[in-house]
Amino acid sequence: MNPNPHLRPTKTAILLLNLGTPAAPTAKAVRVYLKEFLSDPRVVEIPRVIWWCILNGIILPIRSGASAKKYASIWLPKLGSPLMHYSRLQAKELGERFAQHGQTVLVDLAMRYGQPSTEAVLGELQEQGMERLLLLPLYPQYSATTSASSFDEVFRVLGKWRNQPELRLVKHYHDYPAYINALRDQVQTFWDKEGCPDFAKGDRFVMSFHGLPKRNLMRGDPYHCECLKTGRMLGEALGLEAGQYLVTFQSRFGKAEWLKPYTAPTIEKLAQAGCERMDIFCPGFPADCLETLEEIAMEAREIFLEHGGKDYRYIPCLNSNPAWIEALEIIAQQHLVGWPLDSESEAVLTKRNERAELAKERIA
């Protein structure tokens, strides 16, 4: 890095933050990923000594191999992890949108767990002259377990820097019109292609969000309320009545009570009650991943069909939907107000350097 900051342009950067993914669908890679993920005190709020014994003595030896098989079932040929592929694509296309407007904004992606690590990506942005940084989590609904944990890691890294950038962060956007419109576009595009269900005959549109222990809600985490609001706004945007759609929560783990209603038992009950056709969508996941492609598109489908359902349709996540990339740009632009987004010309840099050198001479 050039030691003289006057000799390079200052730049604005956007850092997309996501959870992470194993490097490969193998037991070894999954174990490394799970250990980092489940060691985060924001994720598991159990006394550290007790949890260390449970994690290393029971969970990692048992779950690593089983999870690796699940990852292998959704791994994309030549592309690898779906979450990584689509998250990188979102960062690339967001950067291209700024470039189309003649704006020079650095856009990159960092994972909370695994690679590319937050520390490595921030270092690369610093090398490129980043002086202003906007943190944009790919978690539309805020939770201490996701958004706050990602912010924590950024703060930890920047806490070691001598010259820190200006910093802004997007806490959440669960009710932003651009985000809701992107969700509606994704669902409506699917219905235009595959046919819209006749909800009057008992069909259901299910919105499944990632679950959290209920105690998180009771301790003040707003995630549950934000999911419900997203679900209501999307249902209304699609023109559905209250009884035609419902919000559920998936990925329950352990014996503690989690946010309800649970996705899998709800699907089973609906099928048993005579619901023959179900469309299911995961609005809280901007990119398809293990929880959507394996748990919802595969496991939940089996549950529905085994208990009397006839037609189960999984609607893919936003992924690289142009409406979603546009929404990301709108959200970012709202939080970038007042920051320069254009490249400094060589003339400006030269003049700045001349002034700096002149100031040195006067001081000397």
Automatic annotation (TrEMBL):
Top enzyme category: lyase
Assigned EC number: 4.98.1.1
Superkingdom of the source species: Bacteria
Catalytic reaction equation(s): Fe-coproporphyrin III + 2 H(+) = coproporphyrin III + Fe(2+); heme b + 2 H(+) = protoporphyrin IX + Fe(2+)
Matches recorded under Gene3D superfamilies: 3.40.50.1400
Keywords: Cytoplasm, Heme biosynthesis, Iron, Lyase, Metal-binding, Porphyrin biosynthesis
Record-linked Pfam families: Ferrochelatase
Function: Catalyzes the ferrous insertion into protoporphyrin IX.
Family in the record: Belongs to the ferrochelatase family.
Protein name: Ferrochelatase
Gene encoding the protein: hemH
